[in-house]
Structure formats: C-alpha cells, structure tokens
C-alpha cells in the first residue's frame, strides 16, 4: 500500500504555540484512521497540517505524494476537509451551495443531486436557504459538499456531530464505500458510538504527537 | 480563468440577492446620508450645489465600505475562508471575481444615489460622459481596493473596526478625484475633470496589479 500521509518528526507552530511537536504518522491508501485524544491534543491541527492550512516548520511531511514543506497548496484539490464549522453560505439554497462547491473544486455540478440523495437529504429542502436548516441538516449539506468533489483524502473533524443515529450510520456507510473505492479517510473524534466500527486503525494523540499507534513500527 | 471569475462573482451576487443587505440596508442608509446633508445645508443652496460631488462620494464611500465588509463577512462566517483556500479556484480569479461582484453592487448603489443628488441638491449634469467615466473609474478603484484590504483584515477579530480604518486613507485619493471630476461634470467647477477620472483609473490599475500578486498570500496567511 502506498502512503497517502507520511509525517516524520513533524513540528508545526501556530503563532508562538507548538501544535504538532514531533509527530510521526503514516496513513496508507484506503485506510480509515480514527484519531482520538483529549481537547487540545493537536487533532484538529493534524488535519489542518494534512490539508496544508498549517505549515510544517520542521521534520518531513508528505501528503498524496506532495512535499508539504515545498508546496502545501499542491494536494488541496484532491482533499476534502470538514472542520468544526460546516463551511456553508447560509444565504444560498442547498443545491446552489453544493453546485458552487462542486464547480470550485473542478467537479461536475450534475453530481449534486446524487450527493444529496446519498446523505439522505430530503428533496423538498434542496431549494431552502441553508440558514433556515437545523444543525444536523447543515452537517449533511456539508458532507454532501465534500462528497460531490470525490476527494482522494477525507479529513473530518468530529464528522458525526449533530447527526442522529440513522444519519451517523449513513455517514459511516458513505465513508466505508469511499474507502473501498480507494479514498483515504482520517477523522478525529472523541469516543462516540458507531465510529469505532468503521476505523481500520485507531491512534491516540496527546501534546501534539501520536502517543498510541498500533500500526507503528 | 473567466469561468472561475464568473463563478465567484455569481456566488457573491446570489448571496447578496438572497440576503438583501445591499439593497435593503446599505442603499437606503447611503441615501439617508445624502438627505441628512440636504437638510443640514438646506439654507445654503449654493454650498449644497458646490459640495454635491463630494457629498455623493462620501455616501458612496460609506456604503461601499459596508459592502466590502459584508463581502468578507460571508467568507469568514462558518469557516468559508478555509473552503476557499481548499478550492481549486486560482487566487487571481478569486480576487477578480470578488472585485467584479463588488463592482456590480457599488454600481447599483450609485444608480440609486445618482438621481438622489440631482433631486435633493438641485444640480444638473453638463458632461454626462465625464460623469459616467468618473463613476466607473471610482467604482473600479473602490472594488479592487476593497477586496485587497478586505482580505487583509478578514482573519482578524477586530475587522469590523479595522477595515474602515485601513480603507479610508487608501480610498481618500479616490474620494478626492471623484469629487473633483463630479464637480466638473455637474458644472460647478471648471477644471480638469478628465484628469481626475484618469487618476482613479490609475489607482484602480495599481491596486489590481497589487491584488493579483498579493491576494493569494494574504488569503493564505490571514
């Protein structure tokens, strides 16, 4: 299996605060990696470093074959990032928003309907402004926005947040299917029902580094 | 590149059309500013006529600043800035797309304010070509300066107060040039109106060049 994410002794500093402190991690293609850890352990920073939104100042970092210390923007078009926030324009309609996201990552706007159906979003709400949706519905729109771009690497921060049990199961099925198709998934989450089952590996972070990794040499 | 520019501009304009902030709040407020000056200087008609150009551009400056602020508020809201950074849209396209959307909105604002000064300030137009050229040049300058300085302040918590503080000194030459060009177009001052309009085009061109070069870096580091 080829490495999609490979960090060696990676150090990242945001402002004057070190968020990654010598992180070692390898994630292979098709893996579903669950990153656990206490608040402030560096989980979100790890995702942002993988997306190139946080620079790696020391050590080695490679994502999808791109050296992140040389060009951290290069792999972004192949990555789908879902953070704490949903990255939604609240005044746009659901369908309009996803069509914009699709076009902005070079995907086909015609895949919008399929993405919304896949996340189980009711068709009668496709034209409703996002601002009037519930938190769970917004999360589904955010997931559909990622889905339409068919990313090779999914970076998900608490993806099950605000979703009901049925929607969590549906998201797990989507992620499993994406992984089977060759995508790699890294999600960070506190312990939550339903998330442990789909992970092919679970690692623990603390103080900006991996402290438990069953896949490490 | 044109497709990307239109994609970004269309998105911004759709957001504004739905939110109705530009037409429902900013334009009426800018119009109110013109009216307040009309009431305040009512007794002195000649002063009102002579100051019409300057007061017009002050109202555009105020309304334009609110529109620029709004243009970046929708990006900082709900983490959309990260989504823009992650998108495949080229940074020059993003810059020009947002500037184009602002250009359209500020043009609409001016289409409302223009008749406002003709009616409220009792002035007539003696040079329509100069009036339109100055309006277009000023709008261009407002739009590109707004996007450049807007992205600079977008990542900061104090952006609501910082943006006007950064923007007003940068736009002061546009305000001055616009006022002078309008005074000539309205026939209240003989002078080099076209030179002032040309100056605004130069300011717009300089900021466009700066924006094309620096927008990506500013978005990335913001």
Could you please describe the fold and organization of this structure?
- The complex is a heterodimer of chains A (217) and B (222).
- Chain A has 217 residues and is an alpha/beta fold.
- Chain A starts with a strand and ends in a 5-residue tail after the last strand.
- The model of chain A has no long low-confidence stretch (mean pLDDT 87).
- Chain A has helices at residues 43-50, 94-104, 112-118, 135-147, 165-180, 195-198, and strands spanning 3-14, 17-28, 32-37, 58-63, 66-67, 79-82, 153-157, 184-188, 201-206, 209-212.
- Chain A has 6 helices and 10 strands.
- In chain A, the strands form 2 sheets. Chain A has a 6-stranded mixed β-sheet with strand order 6-7-8-3-9-10, with helices on both faces. In chain A, strands 2-1-4-5 form a 4-stranded antiparallel β-sheet, covered by helices on one side.
- Chain B is mainly alpha-helical.
- Chain B contains 8 helices and no strands.
- Chain B has one domain.
- Classes of the chains: A alpha/beta (217), B mainly alpha (222).
- The A-B interface holds A 51, 53, 73, 76-77, 79, 81, 83-93, 96, 100-101, 103-106, 129 and B 7, 11, 14-16, 18-19, 74, 77-80, 82-89, 220.
């Amino acid at each position: 299996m080829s490495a999609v994410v490979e960090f060696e002794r990676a150090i990242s500093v945001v402002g004057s605060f070190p968020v990654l402190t010598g992180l070692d991690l390898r994630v292979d293609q098709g893996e579903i990696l669950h990153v656990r850890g206490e608040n402030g352990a560096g989980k979100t920073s790890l995702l942002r470093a993988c997306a190139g939104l946080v620079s790696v100042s020391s050590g080695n970092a490679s994502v999808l074959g791109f050296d992140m210390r040389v060009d951290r923007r290069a792999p972004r078009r192949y990555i789908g990032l879902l953070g704490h926030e949903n990255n939604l324009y609240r005044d746009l309609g659901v369908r309009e928003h996803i069509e914009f996201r699709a076009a902005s990552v070079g995907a086909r706007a015609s895949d919008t309907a399929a993405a919304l159906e896949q996340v189980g979003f009711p068709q009668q709400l496709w034209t409703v402004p996002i601002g009037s949706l519930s938190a769970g519905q917004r999360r589904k729109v955010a997931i559909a926005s990622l889905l339409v771009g068919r990313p090779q690497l999914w970076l998900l921060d608490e993806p099950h947040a605000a979703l009901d049990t049925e929607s969590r199961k549906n998201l797990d099925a989507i992620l499993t299917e994406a992984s089977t198709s060759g995508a790699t998934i890294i999600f960070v989450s506190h312990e939550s029902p339903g998330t442990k089952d789909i992970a092919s590996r679970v690692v623990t972070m603390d103080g900006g580094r991996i402290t438990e990794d069953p896949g490490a040499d | 590149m044109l497709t990307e520019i239109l994609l970004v501009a269309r998105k911004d304009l759709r957001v504004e059309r739905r939110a109705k902030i530009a037409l429902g709040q900013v334009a009426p407020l800018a119009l109110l500013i013109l009216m307040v000056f009309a009431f305040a200087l009512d007794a002195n008609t000649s002063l009102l006529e002579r100051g019409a150009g300057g007061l017009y551009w002050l109202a555009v400056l105020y309304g334009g600043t609110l529109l620029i602020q709004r243009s970046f508020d929708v990006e900082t809201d709900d983490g959309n800035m990260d989504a823009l950074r992650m998108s495949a849209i080229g940074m020059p396209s993003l810059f020009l797309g947002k500037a184009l959307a602002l250009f359209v909105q500020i043009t609409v604002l001016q289409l409302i304010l223009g008749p406002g000064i003709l009616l409220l300030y009792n002035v007539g137009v003696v040079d329509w070509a100069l009036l339109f050229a100055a309006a277009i040049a000023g709008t261009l300058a407002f739009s590109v300066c707004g996007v450049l300085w807007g992205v600079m302040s977008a990542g900061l918590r104090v952006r609501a107060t910082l943006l006007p503080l950064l923007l007003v000194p940068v736009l002061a030459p546009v305000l001055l040039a616009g006022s002078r060009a309008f005074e000539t177009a309205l026939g209240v001052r003989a002078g080099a109106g076209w030179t002032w309009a040309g100056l605004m085009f130069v300011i717009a061109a300089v900021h466009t060049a700066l924006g094309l070069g620096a927008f990506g870096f500013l978005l990335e580091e913001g």
